[in-house]
Amino acid sequence: MKVYIGGYPNRWYHRLFNWYPEPTVYVKIDPYDTWSMDHTLAHICLPMLKQLRDTAHGSPFVEFEDRPEHLIGTTPTSFGDPTDEFHHDAWYWCLEEMMYAFESKIEDDFIIELENCQRIQNGFRLFGKYFQNLWD
After folding, report:
1. Are 52 and 107 in a shared domain?
2. Is residue 90 located within the same domain as residue 120?
3. Neighbour-count burial of 62, counting CB atoms closer than 10 A to its CB (0-12 exposed, 13-18 middle, 19+ buried)
4. Which terminus of the chain has fewer Cβ atoms in its 10 Å neighbourhood, N or C?
5. How many structural domains does the chain have?
6. Which is nearest to 58 in space by CA: 99, 90, 80, 96?
7. Same domain, 13 and 40
8. Which residue has the higher pLDDT, 58 or 129?
9. What is the pLDDT of residue 136?
10. pLDDT value at 128 more than 70
11. pLDDT at residue 112 in the model
12. pTM for the full model?
């Protein structure tokens, strides 16, 4: 697999003139890349999730049903705002669970225990559910 993505419009004059050039995208997929596509994608997704965690400038709302009990908030930050006192912590927890799932996918020798398997499945579920929130 070979991937090149570049030329993102991120200069002040792009925003000023509302001119956004098309980014340069080149992707070459070899037949063996899809033999274990889940494993191949894990090698791409994991470092991207780590960078997002380390450079995030905001946090989307993580629904209470997806949070662990200790991150379920009660106090809205302001009137009409859905965020609570654990808003950012919940997102970072969510990212950590996604990263755990992808790290487990990369490690071929991990022992599958029921609790571990459920955590991995939950990490992938969160990745799918919050896929459109993976931005910075």
Report:
1. yes
2. yes
3. buried
4. C
5. 2
6. 90
7. no
8. 129
9. 83
10. yes
11. 64
12. 0.82
